[in-house]
Amino acid sequence: PETQVGQELLRFPPDFVWGAATAAFQIEGATGIDGRGPSIWDTFAATPGKVLGGDTGEPACDHYHRYAADVGLMADLGLGAYRFSLAWPRIQPTGAGRVEPRGLAFYDRLVDELLEYGIQPVATLYHWDLPQALEDHGGWRNRDTAYRFAEYAALTHAHLADRVQLWTTLNEPWCSAFLGYGNGVHAPGVVDPRAALEAAHHLMLGHGLALRAMRSSAPADHRFSIVLNFCSTWADRDDEAHRVAVRKVDGLQNRLFLDPLGGRGYPADVVEDTAWLGDWQRVVRDGDPEVIASPIDWMGVNYYSPTRIAPAPADHVTEGPFAGLRGVTVLPPRGELTGFGWEVDARAFTELLERLGRDVAVPLVITENGSAFPDVLRDGEVVDADRTRYLIDHLRAVHTAIARGVDVRGYFAWSLLDNFEWAAGYSQRFGIVHVDFGTQVRTVKHSGHTLGRVISRNGVPAGGYEPV
Length: 468
Ligand code: GBH
What we know:
The chain has helices spanning 24-27, 40-45, 63-77, 88-91, 101-116, 132-135, 144-160, 173-182, 193-215, 240-261, 268-273, 288-292, 346-359, 385-403, 446-457; strands at 9-11, 17-21, 81-85, 120-126, 166-171, 223-229, 233-235, 298-303, 307-311, 328-330, 364-369, 377-378, 381-382, 408-414, 433-435, 442-444, 459-461. By secondary structure, it is α/β, with parallel strands linked by helices. Strand 15 and strand 16 (442-444) form a beta hairpin. The protein is globular, with a radius of gyration of 21 Å. Bound molecules: ligand GBH. The site of ligand GBH has 16 residues, from helix 8.
């Protein structure tokens, strides 16, 4: 293999945090033991036709039993931090009241193992696995769920507060609301755009209530956040009609969350665009906007792919996940696509980060970025050239944003392990570590070795794609 001695290195800031991310339901398996209650994803996956191939949360990566070896892998890769989520139904099997000590004990073991290796834990309280018992009462359509979430957050935070400083309330509330209740491709599978908007409000209320509850008893060095997935929208033209279409999509996915978090309330144009669905704003009560605007310390940014759109007739209901949007059509992706069919575009990442640098008052952390490609196994190695190129190009994109003045503090690759990819089951692999779901054997992919090298040098080569 060619070497590139002297190749210029794009260096990251000295205290830049390098990590990888996962989520409880996607990796843990062990869904029926130690008192864990069912989540909406157990129910959804058990419903024929909802998850590709009938795949379920079993066995996933059996991480519940293999966490120690997985932490060892993280140490081998040189990760400084690990972003994971806690399963609410392990900790409160019915989402309210009784706490299951065996559930908390698993996260004790995991966190202690991470600390043993000097890996900083970054805890996400909710990555989509709502206790089914709460869904039976309406789930996120029910305001009460926001209060239940705050209780769960407070007790979980209190339990780990002496060991975990970095916390995230929700992962991608847009997905929970619009994929879960809008177009129904995610659990609980409800198709009702108005319910999606009401759920979005209750999710944000839950975020604010949880933040306040945790903050009131937190040590001074704790840092709280929310993780959002942003739509990075491309239109082919810059005429008035295209600008309106871009504004609509940006409103429903980005500003619907950014504005209330920033204390600006729900954007007037989004309220107007969605009025045809009925007055979803009736679920917003006095005091809610202040709760939602409770200050965060950092914002998590998940980025994968841009979305191409064009204007459509005013009464055209937008297809795909933009439930409740009218006058916009989603165009097919172009150029290089991942195995999932998502467009590869690192420039859109830089552009998004620059925009967030202007519009968000707190430091940013890339909490997820990655790609699904079929893996090429050769002589016991996983040669994932496509994923490796995606990784390097997107790291360069982050570096460019930082060089242009955006305050980005860290990068977490999605994902540490191949895992249960929601509605796609085990058919899409995002890992920098390959998992054989039959034998549970882990193999670090070329992308994983590449990230390890980037971490050890705190920099990414300015050109080319070095072989590992
Ligand atoms: C992340 O969400 C999740 O946080 C993570 O758990 C997941 O494994 C990872 O992405 C990879 O999927 O037209 O309905 O197919 C990413 C957010 C939102 C990105 C939906 C792709 C396509 C919408 N995703 N979007 S759809």
